[in-house]
Amino acid sequence: MVTIKPLKIGELVAKVPVIQGGMGVGVSLSSLAGAVAAEGGIGVISTAQIGYREPDFDTDPIGANLRAIQSEICKAREYAKGGILGVNIMVATRKYEEYVKAAVAAGIDLIISGAGLPMDLPKLAGAARTKLAPIVSSVKSAQVIMRYWWKKYSRLPDAVVIEGPLAGGHLGFHREQLDDIEALHYDDEIKAIIEHVNTTAAEHDTEIPVIVAGGVYTREDMEHCFEMGASGVQMATRFVTTYECDASDAYKQTYIDARKEDIVIVNSPVGMPGRAILNPFMKRAKEGRIPHGKCHLCISTCKQAETPYCITDALVNAVTGNVDNALLFCGANAYRATKLEHVKDIIDEFRPSAS
To answer: Residue 127, Cα to own-chain centre: how many angstroms?
Structure first.
């Protein structure tokens, strides 16, 4: 029987080894992250277009987002009751450096960063106590980031998150890989990444916990990850259908209503494949370009003149409940949701037996 232990990231100790994955736009903000942190997990706020509710978001999206990073972290602290809070910041975000600095200035405990390799994250975080966790999907990416950080900054990651092919939203895999996930034998890749991280940590007389993400939905899934050597898991999809999730009830209902065959791989307008629920909007997007307004300066890879639709508009529609005109990002297990739950009930399922 596998032993489930608290998750230690430096001096941070999460009694429950569960990180709630960051979900933009607006799906994981202060309410969800604070609730997870209060129950002993690690709550994560997504900075992706976090300021979408600010009155000047249309005219100054970057300024709105930077203000919202501070205000959402502050609100989450009130809910968290001393628990651990993180932010997820995508490397591909325009003005990435400013977002990192804003989160550090707000006193965030942990920065999780993917959608590209966060090569200069240690420089941006400086001497702050904030812990840094890059997201990787292969042994090669883990090797590159750890070697570079040590050579350039004499620093190693405080934790490493492995995001597999069953995750929701944008994915770090080629489309053809996602068309035949079984052929990836991804458990072998997870084990190899964990071995490399552990070996590197031992060489530097330290410990670097590895957290596995993508397709984790039940305690059984978590135990499987621990059997492979993980120190924790990251879950996102399971937390969408909670009362505390910051998304609209209509968005949550799309998960509850979804069937397995409704969950598909889509081509995101920012140039990356993603996983989402097939809905009227996605069907229209396949047929032709959907007109959009002013650019909201989200992802650096987006080419406004060529994009088939505005991903910011589509994700704002999702979180606010306009679901027929929305991009409904989700993980592979979204169809397993049958009802709304409280965060506490989910976290209780994952608690170490002695906690």
So the answer is: 24
Structure tokens at 138: 């292969």
d(CA 213, CA 200): 21
Whole-structure pTM value: 0.94
User: Which string of DSSP letters, residue by residue, matches 37-53?
Assistant: HHTTSEEEEE-TTTTTT
> CB of 268 within 8 A of CB of 311?
yes
Q: What's the CA gap between 100 and 125, in Å, rounded?
A: 7
Burial 209-223 (b: 16+ CB within 10 A, else e): bbbbbbbbbebebbb
Mean pLDDT, rounded, of the chain: 93
Of 322, 191, 303, the closest CA to residue 248 belongs to 322
Alpha-carbon gap, residue 114 to 58, rounded angstroms: 26
Cβ–Cβ under 8 Å, residues 304 and 295? yes
CB atoms within 10 A of CB 155: 15
Phi-psi region of 81 (alpha: psi -120 to 50; beta: other; left: phi over 0): left
CA distances from 95 to 69, 108, 178, 215, 293 (A): 13, 18, 30, 30, 21
DSSP at 9: E
Paired residues of 132 in beta bridges: 111
DSSP-H helix ranges across the chain: 30-38, 61-80, 96-105, 121-125, 139-153, 175-178, 186-203, 219-227, 237-240, 249-257, 280-287, 311-320, 343-350
Residue pLDDT, tens place only, 189-248: 999 999 999 999 999 999 999 999 999 999 999 999 999 999 999 999 999 999 999 999
